[in-house]
Description:
This protein has helices at 11-17, 99-112, 207-216, 230-253, 267-297; strands at 2-7, 20-26, 34-40, 47-52, 60-67, 70-71, 78-79, 84-86, 117-124, 140-142, 147-156, 161-164, 171-173, 177-179, 193-202, 257-258, 263-264. It is of the alpha+beta class. The longest helix is centred in the C-terminal third of the chain and has 31 residues, at 267-297.
Amino acid sequence: MIQLTIQVNDIDTVIQLYQYIRLYRSDEESGTYVHLAYITLLPGTESYTYNDVTGTTDNWYSSSYYGNGGESSLSDPSQGASPSLFHEVTYSLEAPFDVDQSVIIRKIRRYIGDFPKVQRMYLEDCATRSCEFIHSDGRTIELESRGWPVLISLRTLSDEVVEKTALNDPVVQGYKFLTFSGTLITDDDTCQYNTIDIWYYASKFSDREVYEAYGDAMIPAHVPTDRVTSDHLMLQAAISLLENMTSEDMVEDGAVIYDDASKYDPSPGLTERDKTIKRLKKMLDDLVDEVIRDQLMNVTGVLID
């Protein structure tokens, strides 16, 4: 079973034109999408969940709005193993990837268990709690989790909605900070916007970082360059990403800490990750052994009597 979470931005506007979310499913990202189900839109409700009891991690999903206003365009396809869909992404992608590249990224994410999840930061009354997230420069917001924006909407004091769509405003820095071109809050804590609404995909690694790991992957030992496959490189990339994560965690957060009332011990999580790394290395070794066996079987010679 696959559980899908569909986020509807600006439900008050959408529901004036449409009455349903229409879900579609396909066996391939670029394949034919077949109608799967209707979900009724509800006033004031922006998040909807649907359980596809016959869905698998290989399925792809897309959605549209449907009703008296006809049918909207389909959303971008989302892999079934990543059950979070965000309708109408407006902020620019970090990097464009074609279908083949997207499949590679998806498979590596599956190996390392790092599928993006939809998260939201909704800031209002910025003279109080929201200041925790706006830095002293008055222009930079710190995300609660590492990720990449999909929609950024600011509501001005005159109730005008401004959507940010360009990579240069705001600038995403280190997948953690958004620096805007204009001031969000002044030195005397005067808000420049009524609300700041940020939806983003949170993950340990961005798509660009995952694909760069694939491009940097070393060719396994004893495998000729003309026998290397994408499976070799994807496994190598997954191993490298997890090993780098472990090294960073050991340096920054690897100690066991005790206080009078509690104990913090990261070792169980590190142990489970080490098991995953060993499992992936075993898979890679099996692929390498298969190449070596094929080479030996193809060796020919001359029998000298």
